[in-house]
């Protein structure tokens, strides 16, 4: 027997001897006010509302279910995969006084307090002669059992799956953010440490010229420049300032004076 089963049985057993008053029960009143929040349950049959009350008091409402109609309660267990025919302490037991095995024919419900043998159980039941009582029941009237423990295990497994999925999603998000950060950091570091594609484009003209000067020069080119036979490109570069100067002198009239001066000097 689990601690959950112990708690449920002890809570139900604490109500032993309780009797309804003038056709009304505190369990029906509680159910109407707290579960369905509607009137009309105070005077209703309360065997299932008694089980619901005990479950709620022990924090097991989600495992046991909160019902007032016994066939609906039994079907809920079956839908949860928590329905069977094997008795165990703390299980919810469903009865049909007509001796059928049909969920739709269920008349009554209680809690298994003790398993006497394979065919006999001791129960705690509400609304038997308008009271909470303990009974010894045989399986000829038992339709089946609902197992709160199986509902709990299913919910825990589902919660674990959800938590794992949430952790995986969080890890993927964190990894993505870290990757983006590393890429941005690499871009910045590349600019600072001289990635060729980025730094070369940003070098000043002076640095570029200095870099070109530092390159290996063909000896023939140097020799040509010193002996007055420069390469065509070098000659063009040397003559460009002269051409520009002559053009400016012509525009200002100074060229004519300069030529006259050269002619006069030549006659001397």
Measured on Cα atoms, how large is the radius of gyration?
50 Å
List the helices and strands in order: HHHHHEEEEEEHHHHHH
Low-confidence stretches: 196-217, 221-234
Classification by helices and strands:
alpha+beta
β content, as a range?
5-15%
Report mean pLDDT, rounded to a whole number: 81
Count the strands?
A: 6
Terminal CA distance reads 137 Å
Global geometry: rod-shaped
The description of the largest β-sheet is: 6 strands, antiparallel
Task: Name the helicity range.
Answer: 55-70%
Helix run count: 11
Oligomer: single chain
Strand order of the largest sheet: 1-6-2-3-4-5
Describe the structure.
- With 268 residues, the protein is α+β, with helices and mostly antiparallel strands.
- It contains eleven helices and six strands.
- It has helices at residues 3-13, 26-34, 47-57, 61-64, 70-79, 148-193, 196-202, 205-214, 219-226, 232-252, 254-267, and strands spanning 83-84, 92-95, 108-117, 120-128, 131-138, 142-146.
- A six-stranded antiparallel beta sheet has the order 1-6-2-3-4-5.
- Helix 1 packs across helix 3 (47-57) and helix 2 (26-34) crosses helix 3 (47-57).
- The termini are far apart.
- Residues 196-217 and 221-234 have low confidence and may be disordered.
């Amino acid at each position: 027997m689990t601690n959950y089963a112990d708690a449920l049985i002890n809570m139900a057993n604490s109500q032993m001897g309780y009797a309804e008053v003038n056709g009304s029960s505190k369990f029906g009143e509680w159910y109407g006010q707290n579960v369905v929040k509607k009137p009309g349950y105070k005077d209703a049959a309360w065997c299932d509302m008694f089980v619901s009350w005990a479950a709620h008091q022990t924090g097991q409402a989600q495992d046991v279910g909160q019902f007032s109609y016994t066939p609906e309660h039994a079907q809920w267990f079956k839908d949860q995969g928590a329905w069977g025919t094997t008795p165990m302490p703390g299980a919810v037991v469903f009865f049909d006084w007509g001796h059928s095995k049909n969920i739709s024919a269920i008349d009554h419900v209680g809690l298994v307090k003790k398993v006497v043998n394979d065919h006999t159980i001791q129960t705690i039941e509400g609304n038997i002669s308008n009271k909470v009582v303990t009974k010894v029941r045989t399986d000829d009237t038992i339709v089946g059992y609902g197992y709160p423990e199986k509902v709990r295990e299913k919910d825990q497994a589902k919660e674990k799956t959800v938590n794992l999925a949430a952790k995986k999603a969080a890890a993927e998000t964190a990894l993505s953010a870290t990757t983006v950060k590393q890429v941005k950091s690499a871009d910045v570091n590349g600019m600072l440490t001289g990635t060729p594609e980025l730094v070369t484009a940003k070098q000043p003209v002076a640095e570029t010229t200095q870099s070109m000067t530092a390159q290996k020069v063909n000896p023939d080119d140097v020799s040509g420049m010193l002996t007055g036979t420069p390469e065509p490109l070098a000659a063009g570069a040397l003559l460009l300032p002269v051409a520009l100067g002559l053009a400016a002198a012509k525009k200002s009239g100074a060229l004519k004076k300069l030529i006259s001066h050269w002619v006069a000097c030549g006659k001397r």
